[in-house]
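Anyone up for a design puzzle?
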């Protein structure tokens, strides 16, 4: 039978708790569908940094690239200055492993409360393809005359055509495979960022016309995208966008699907090793209380199985999650689910 080697990075705060539930459900799926998962844990995160002074060993990406996939809990520690771990671990791994896609489904499961008026699961079901290794996240920058009244800070948004094209190609292929509305929307800001999003827009229409004539192409400015994600989310099928806009609109998307307790994502390198993670943070104040919602981690695990080619197992986990949200959980928030973290993991695992 097939077997997969999974690197597990439980990380900080409530990360380890949700990772345990994720592994519980993944193992149930492996048993049911006849494959094997071999886990190896890595302790990258805030505690290790505070203990050793090292954010991430230089060998980390090399080590991790030998696995079939990476399963991550959360990075972020209350005793470490914001930015150090996020940039030094999470972003560094994304960049070094060239995970150039951040795939973030925005899907409202049955029974999950949404802040969007009169909207249900039939309206909120689309996917954001966020470019994950370029743009403002990796453009050069710096200060001049730091600390003086004449100080200047620069942070540049840089994209080259190859970066843009590989992301667009993934998005078109994904839209085609998804086969729902066959509509890919580019989210940009061509009216102000007239260089970067001009490049995106030209590449989008050129590639679409040439290789994907069957896929409809839409364009929205990022500000309008936010508006329509609230007012008419049913318009969307797949949205593709740059790194910074993708970061912002996927938090908006997450809250419309019930919040960070349920929002899953994958950092994908289609030619290499990918890393799956709940899109929320480490929620340190809930650490050890057994109240955090593990569904985002569990759903990220399902995305990982889908990516590994275990599509049936992924669908079974998704169906189990939906049964639990529809019939069991009262709310998605920490401490408001009506069940503990462990119990939610058990509920989903039983159903798988
Ligand atoms: C995310 C997070 C990260 C990002 C942070 C923690 C660096 O917000 O995964 O969306 O900005 O990409
Ligand atoms: Mn974010």
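Challenge accepted. My sequence:
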């Amino acid at each position: 039978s097939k077997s997969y080697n999974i690197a597990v990075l439980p990380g900080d705060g409530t990360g380890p708790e949700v990772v345990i539930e994720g592994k519980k459900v993944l193992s149930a799926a492996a048993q049911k569908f006849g494959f094997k998962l071999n886990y190896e844990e890595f302790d990258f995160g805030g505690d290790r940094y505070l203990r050793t002074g090292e954010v991430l060993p230089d060998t980390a990406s090399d080590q991790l690239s030998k696995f079939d996939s990476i399963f991550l809990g959360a990075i972020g520690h209350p005793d470490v200055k914001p930015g150090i771990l996020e940039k030094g671990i999470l972003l560094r791994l994304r960049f070094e492993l060239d995970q150039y896609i951040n795939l973030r489904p925005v899907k409202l499961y049955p029974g999950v409360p949404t802040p969007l008026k009169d909207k249900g699961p039939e309206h909120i079901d689309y996917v954001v393809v966020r470019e994950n290794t370029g743009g403002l996240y990796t453009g050069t920058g710096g200060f001049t005359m730091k600390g003086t009244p004449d100080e200047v800070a620069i942070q540049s948004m840089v994209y080259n055509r190859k970066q843009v094209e590989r992301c667009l190609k993934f998005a078109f292929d994904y839209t085609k495979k998804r086969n729902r509305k066959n509509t890919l929307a580019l989210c940009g800001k061509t009216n102000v960022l007239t260089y970067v999003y001009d490049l995106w827009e030209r590449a989008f229409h050129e590639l679409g016309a040439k290789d994907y004539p069957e896929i409809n192409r839409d364009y929205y400015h990022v500000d309008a995208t936010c508006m329509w994600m609230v007012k008419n989310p049913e318009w969307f099928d797949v949205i593709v966008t740059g790194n910074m806009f993708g970061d912002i609109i996927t938090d908006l998307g997450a809250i419309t699907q019930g919040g960070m307790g349920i929002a899953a994502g994958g950092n994908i390198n289609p030619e290499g090793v990918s890393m799956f993670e709940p899109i929320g943070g480490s929620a340190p104040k809930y650490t050890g209380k057994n109240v955090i919602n593990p569904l985002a981690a569990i759903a990220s695990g399902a995305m990982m199985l889908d990516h590994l080619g275990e599509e049936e197992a992924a669908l079974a986990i998704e169906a189990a999650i939906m049964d639990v949200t529809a019939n069991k959980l009262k709310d998605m928030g920490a401490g408001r689910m009506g069940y503990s973290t462990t119990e939610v993991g058990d509920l989903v695992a039983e159903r798988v």
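A detail worth pointing out: The domain at 1-99+264-352 is CATH 3.40.718.10 (Isopropylmalate Dehydrogenase).
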